[in-house]
Amino acid sequence: MKNKLRIILLLLLLCPQINVSGQNTLATLADMHSVAKDETWESVAAHYGVSVAELQAANPDVKRKKLKKKTLLIIPKAHAPLASEGKESSLPAGQIELTPLIRTSIPNLKVGVLLPFGQPKMVEFYRGLLMAADSVRRQGVNLDIHAWDCGTTTAQLEPLLPGLSGLDVIFGPPSPTQIHVLAETCKEQGTRLVLPFWSGQALQDYPLVYNATAPDAVCCDAAVRKLLSYYADRNFVIVHSGNADNIGRTLTEVLGQHVTQRAVVSRVLELEGDDFAYESALNQFRDNMIVIDDSSVRSLNILLARLKEFRQKHPDYRLTLVGYSSWQDETQRLLGDFFAFDTHVISPYYYNVFDERTKLFQRTYEKAFRTTIAQDNPRLAAMGFDLGYYFMSGISSLGDTFEQMQGSLRQESYQNRYQFERNATGMSFTNSFIQFIHFTPENKIELIR
Questions:
Q1: Is the pTM above the cut of 0.85?
Q2: How many CB atoms lie within 10 A of CB 211?
Q3: What SS3 class is residue 133?
């Protein structure tokens, strides 16, 4: 309720394009400030040349103690920072020069899309974006969408750059070689850039770039923290396959580091070990959580076979299997095994083909584009919808406060959810959302978020 009242207050106070005399009280509320790390009431007040008492009086709903990062403060005077004092005003006598106001909504949104449309997957993603745009328009938002075929090289992208000015947000491109060039252009123009597919590291000094596909290290760290917060009492067993891949190696290394720091019980087991090795690593009196260092189907098949053999000889052992996003491709074939071993698949996405909302989404897609959605995981059409809706609806409703208030957005996704964070000021945002797709022993599928 407090947040809603504050938004209403801001909407009343921050009317755009005001040029009024000193008698108008709205002129004294023409600036806002987003609190940065380690800022205090005293430092913000000094920066704007107001007293602490005046600043706190203008923000009665903000706690008087330590300021929280990203809190929005109303500045009680149309007063530029002290560094700019001493400049003469060019306005007529009796008028006050106001700083540019923060837009708390953008009802007319300009959207750019840069994708290599020669690739069928990119076409499907774009169709999902268009479906999201249609939903946002029904909310009363005017959307102006411009799409370009950007190819995959910098040479193909560069001729398009001059035509990108004036956009509120750009989606794309997937090619790593094009990202820095486009990010630099967006930085110069103050345009948000959403990268749907790039899983590289966060970009330094690009605060309006959003990486929607997190690197393995970010996903694994978030997953391990969630595992240990829910299941710290388990006996963790790290299985060495002899064929570790990047995601598997990263997950088990991060898990090993965290269990050591937290003094959680853990064991190491060789995939090809004999029954004695499995019995030594697993605990008869605790729940066992088993994590293999290879996400491949081959290693999964071997592990399931070994666990079945072990369970036949030792039926009293409680076994839980932890897996990877790629395992979702095997759900139809291995569903019974996933249920039997209380499997927790770590994934930033989940497409429930049995959900009625999902079925309606598929029917709408097929009717609109006269084709079916590709059965790959993740579904590109659903990703396009979820990502497009998150940003188009969010930016139109929050305006320039999107970066500070995006955590308040309600997400009813078909497949992907978003939790954007950045590690330091000036860095790009990275999606750190991770969930567990839990195949329960009661033959149910639940999402643990």
A1: no
A2: 27
A3: helix
